[in-house]
Amino acid sequence: MSSSAHAPNLAHHFESYEQQRESASLGMWLFVAQEIMFFGGLFTAYLVYRINNPEIFKMASSELNIYQGGINTAVLILSSLTMALAVREAQLGRSKRIVALLVATFILGGVFVGIKYFEYSAKFEHHLVPGEHFDLHLNAEELAYLEKVGITDQAKIQSRAQMFFSIYFAMTGLHALHMLVGMALIIWLIPKAWRGVFNADYHNPVECFGLYWHFVDIVWIFLFPLLYLLGRNIGA
Amino acid sequence: MSSEAHADSHAHSSVHVESLGVYFAIFGALIILTGITAWVAFHDYGQALNDLIAIGIAVTKASLVVLFFMHVRHSTKVVKMVVVSGVVWLLVLFAFVLGDVFARGPYSVIG
Q: How does pLDDT run across A185-205, given as a tens digit for each residue?
């Protein structure tokens, strides 16, 4: 009883705050390692289908909006900075600053998901969502390029391009879902930060959430070049 | 578990606080590398080299985030081991699946 009064937020099975922090970080990192494999399956699917259809993937990738993808990359990197600074302020126990930086991170996450919404909408309008109405329009130049590399079967072009967009939606969709979960967790963190429970000894929730947020940023760091930047070098 | 033990551990409870400059420098590097990867994509160095540069830059960016934003630079050895093993298992997944893909040659499961 008395020890909890002396050491708030230190669980009784830990010897010290340091041990508690290290245990929390280790647990979170094990979760992140599992997340690597979670996304890893989709990256493997990407790898297999791209190796089999390198040229059609270039054509399909060029349909993506490089500006929206690029701006979102910058937005996510900026949100990683605000998150890293939030963790730093938590280490220093400055409640108001933690809250401000968490709010900034939340807003940047919202901007990312908002831009993603407009991207997805455009794909629906352009018949680039896999399914019955999928229809990839290639201009004469693109068709000539594919013919040059020996691909003339239109049905094959449509089916493999559809595969690219299936992978695109699965990967960016799972990523966007992680963003939404992350934003929900920020809402959970803000009142805690506001109440001033975080300090140099105890800031595990902010630290661990930061690991999650940065991991989601890293996934996007790989998705941007792999999905958006193929085929841009043709004719360069 | 006396209260003195807690007080003692409290005194030794230290956390490494990175300087602000480090965070802003890493942020700057990540933005610049994003610019470079987009710029390179619009130039043709041969598909293999284009891919290699894109992956190389992405791995560099991810490493910066892991080491600095995620504090692995100052983490315990067991955390470093988990980080490395996470990446190693991913590479094992890629290696075994790609071994199968290349052994079978081009396939036509779909289309």
A: 999 999 999 999 999 999 999
Nearest to B7 among A6, A88, A210 (CB): A6
pLDDT digits (tens, 9 = 90+) for A114-161: 999 999 999 999 999 999 999 999 999 999 999 999 999 999 999 999
Contact between A38 and A229 under an 8 Å Cβ cutoff? The reply is: no
Q: Which phi and psi (to 5°) does residue A152 adopt?
A: -125, -15
Q: Where are the domains of chain B?
A: 3-74, 76-111
A13: phi then psi, degrees, rounded to nearest 5: -85, 5
ipTM of the complex as predicted = 0.94
Greatest distance between any 2 Cα atoms in chain A:
79
Assigned fold of A15-228: Four Helix Bundle (Hemerythrin (Met), subunit A) (1.20.120)
Which of A:123-182 have CB within 8 Å of B?
155-156, 159-160, 163
A91 in B contact zone (CB under 8 Å): yes
Neighbours of A102 (CB within 10 A): 26
Q: What is the pTM of this model?
A: 0.92
Supply B59's token pair. 């791995």
Tokens of B9: 């551990």
